[in-house]
Specification:
Bound molecules: zinc ion
Strand order of the largest sheet: 2-1-6
Largest sheet: 3 strands, mixed
Order of helices and strands: HEHEEEEE
Structural class: alpha+beta
Shape: elongated
CATH architecture of the domain at 2-65 and 99-110: 2-Layer Sandwich
Oligomer: single chain
CATH topology of the domain at 2-65 and 99-110: hypothetical protein PF0899 fold
Number of helices: 2
Helix content: 10-25%
Length: 130
């Protein structure tokens, strides 16, 4: 739930920054060690985003492999089945290069009026009543 909330927060921030009226798709990179279950993330996100600009957005979750660096020979290798042993020299790798991240790579959505966006010299006075 906390993860879905932070995904939503970031997506909303990005959405406002790009002037989106509605967010239709969110792409995420999730490390294999991030302990994210895509289905439950989608479910929680759907509930949390209900009354926001991200309501109905599709979550596209790309999983990132776990990569470690050997402490002895600096070899980079992909960790499978939680075996953190270097395939080159058999030393345990203590440095995790990737696999724990949860990052938002891009969002897609609709801006206000897509037909003549930015071409509106008679502009609205949207910051009138401060
Ligand atoms: Zn090594």
């Amino acid at each position: 739930m906390a993860i879905a909330q932070s995904v939503l927060d970031i997506a909303k921030q990005e959405g406002y920054r790009h002037g989106l009226r509605r967010i239709s798709m969110i792409r995420l990179q999730v490390g294999a060690l991030a302990a994210v279950v895509p289905d439950s993330l989608k479910f929680c996100f759907e509930m949390l985003s209900r009354d926001t600009i991200a309501a109905g957005a599709v979550l596209q979750i790309e999983s990132v492999p776990v990569v470690a660096r050997c402490s002895a020979c600096r070899e980079l290798f992909e960790v499978e089945n939680h075996v953190f042993l270097c395939p080159q020299c058999d030393e345990p790798a203590l440095e995790l290069v990737s696999g724990r991240e949860l990052s938002l790579t891009s969002i897609e959505g609709e801006t206000g009026d897509s037909n003549d966006a930015d071409e509106n010299p008679s502009g609205a006075q949207h910051s009138a009543g401060q």
